[in-house]
Design brief:
Family: Belongs to the ABC transporter superfamily.
Distance between the termini: 42 Å
CATH superfamily: P-loop containing nucleotide triphosphate hydrolases
Bound molecules: adenosine-5'-diphosphate, magnesium ion
Number of strands: 10
GO molecular function: ABC-type amino acid transporter activity; ATP binding; ATP hydrolysis activity
CATH class: Alpha Beta
Number of helices: 9
Order of helices and strands: EEEHEEHEHHHEHEHEEHH
Subcellular location: Cell membrane
Keywords: Amino-acid transport, ATP-binding, Cell membrane, Membrane, Nucleotide-binding, Transport
Membrane topology: Peripheral membrane protein
Oligomer: single chain
CATH topology: Rossmann fold
Shape: globular
Length: about 250
Amino acid sequence: MSPSSTPILEFDGVNKYFGDAHVLRDVDLDVEDREVCVVIGPSGSGKSTLLRCANRLEAIQSGEIRLEGEAISAPDADINRLRQRIGMVFQSFNLFPHKTALENVTLGPRKVKGISKNDARERAEELLASVGLSDQTDSYPGQLSGGQQQRVAIARALAMEPDVMLFDEVTSALDPELVGEVLDVMGELAEEGMTMLVVTHQMGFAREVGDRVVLMSEGRIVETAEPERFFADPDTDRAQQFLSKIL
Ligand code: ADP
Ligand code: MG
């Protein structure tokens, strides 16, 4: 079996309940190495929960989630090590307000991975440059725009050298004029071959950067298709309905 034949992230018959609410229903999804998989769907359909389960921020009740073949849902899984391998960026940036951009990026590698101060700094400077922030390394979050803060958050996640990046509506809290700079950084990351699972309402991004679009509705995956096909000629009524509302 070649290494590329194992998906990076697999959801296999995943069910998740909050009390009586069945919010993920028999979800099967494979995210392949270097793939950009874009998850769309109405509010409340389970998109955030899907990502949160992948990072074990939420437990699942049945099924299995695997990272490169290793069950992350297993009771004996090393959660800290798994989380290092799964980078996550949220709608709210959650930067440490009293730390500079550079310190926000170096903190994880230094504390969790035990990387030396100099090495962490060097790598953080590279990462901040790669997200277009080489002139803001010493700024505090409060001195940065939302778009800049979100780019620091992306650099911070990348500093842990994850195998896959999860993005949950990372542009939803931004002023419209700042959305593009964050999507551009994500597009570059995709180009470099990062494996990405992206929840977004940005259909332009889904179309241009996505390798695959997954539509969720009421906790189920109702359609999976290549973007071109999904937007031009979706199979399901549910997808047509969704598209007619947003396009
Ligand atoms: P989406 O991200 O697609 O908007 P979510 O995954 O946030 O959807 O939510 C899916 C469903 O799960 C919704 O009905 C929501 O109300 C419910 N839900 C999400 N988080 C919790 C929670 N912590 N406790 C109870 N219900 C929750
Ligand atoms: Mg959500």
